[in-house]
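Handout for the seminar on molecular recognition.
Each group receives one record of this type.
Step one: identify the two inputs.
Step two: read the structure output and locate the region that could contact 2-phosphoglycolic acid.
Step three: write two sentences on what you found, then compare them with the reference statements printed after the record.
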Amino acid sequence: MRVKLVAGNWKMNGSLASCQALLKAIMPPLSALKRARYAVCAPYPYLAAVGQALKGSNVALGAQDVCQFEDGAYTGGVSGAMLADCGCRYVLVGHSERRSVFGETDEVAAAKFAQALRHGLTPILCIGEALAEREAGTTEAVVARQLDAVIRQGGLETLARSVVAYEPVWAIGTGKTATPQQAQAVHAYIRARIAAADRRLADALVILYGGSVKGANAAQLFAMPDVDGGLIGGASLVADEFVAICRAAQGAEETARI
Ligand code: PGA
């Protein structure tokens, strides 16, 4: 059975002091939520300190990117081994900002995905279409292409050790959330596509939705049958919002068990 996961993506925000203040505000309420799973993806320089604060808690540590190469002469790179060393459990791979701002291709994202797995990290593979692609009716083709690059490089079975995040680019940081039905339709497509090759793997795969998730819309999104939680950007920096989203995941788990 799939368990809901909520991961905060702090992006390049905050300071050491603000990260610590945020953790101080979210950790006590989150410690009471035992049903779902939680993580925060912190900026590289703060990973060690954030990891220290999360120790022994029910919130896992994640990073926002990983180098596509093994250790070596890659100035500025941060390897999977280093992230594992810092206590990371998750790492975002192929976030749309990495793709659009830093020019990351499907193949680079796939190499990063492989590096994460190699070092025992769980990659959260981010896929999703831009507005023009949605309007052109190519949403499914785009997410299929992004997914296929990973499957081609590592094999379908590597998905069993990963999480997928469907993040329509037009919904990221725009305040324009996909409707629960729009999210469900793409999530169902992703799962069906994988199920055509391996139903068991597809049934177990956690697929998060990301893009302007807030406390006010999280419960409706998480109630969709193929939405297994959320990847949260802006709202993960606001303690009350993030806690409300985490509570919505806990609520969805409780409803599922009735
Ligand atoms: P947002 O970002 O919640 O601010 O839209 C989501 C993401 O980029 O992961």
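Reference statements: Residues 9, 167, 172-173, 210-213, 231-235 surround 2-phosphoglycolic acid (CB under 6 Å). The chain has one domain: 5-253.
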